[in-house]
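Dear Dr. L.,

I hope this message finds you well. Following up on our conversation about the binding site, I have prepared a predicted three-dimensional model of the protein together with flavin mononucleotide. For your records, I am including the exact sequence and ligand specification that went into the calculation, followed by the structure tokens. Please feel free to forward this to your student if that is useful.
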Amino acid sequence: MRVDFDPADMPRNDFYKLLTATVVPRPIAWVSTVSEDGTANLAPHSFFSIASVTPPVVQFSSVGRKDTLRNIEATGEFVVNFTPEELFEQINDTATDFPHGVSEFEAAAIESEPSLRVKPLRVAASPVALECELHSTLRIGDGTVVFGRVVHAVVSEEVMVDGHPEISKLRPLSRLGKNEWGTVSGVRELARIRHDDWRGPAADR
Ligand SMILES: Cc1cc2nc3c(=O)[nH]c(=O)nc-3n(C[C@H](O)[C@H](O)[C@H](O)COP(=O)(O)O)c2cc1C
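The resulting structure of the complex is given below.
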């Protein structure tokens, strides 16, 4: 038995809860920006992914018009900071709806550092930062998808093994449904199969 859900017959919030509980786990972009008057801003966004490899473009969605989106539209720049497990509560603190003009860096006591290629600050304790220039935005319903061209990436040496970021050291947080957050508790490896090596469906091998 399966249960059917028709978004047209459901309150917006109920379908939102279904979507966010089933599109899981979602990586979290901890997006730092700066307003035109110089106030630093920081907020987590889990509607986040890679849009293109060449050029390198990442994307996240702002549902509604928030400071993050306004700042990016005004300045054309943002940084995606990685969200490691140890910063769990600090990340959530920055999702608080502080009034415009309040910096989450200050309110949540998050240490910052300058970026190399863009004006928004990086989170000093985050092991990875992707510095982005605004590529474009796309409005869809109540959301705005923000595409950012990555112009610089920085990774802490401590999370790298043989020059490559290592999942057991990165320890990423993800967003699940409701108020749930995920951690990586198991990693399995499986290489993609080239057609020349195909030996039939998994169930038959
Ligand atoms: C883990 C997590 C993920 C979130 N993901 C999103 C998201 O993808 N899009 C969004 O608009 N808001 C998201 N939010 C809510 C924003 O972080 C929140 O509205 C924040 O106050 C926006 O800050 P700003 O106004 O400074 O941009 C998320 C919150 C949390 C805790």
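In brief: The CA atoms of residues 96 and 180 lie 16 Å apart.

With kind regards,
A. P.
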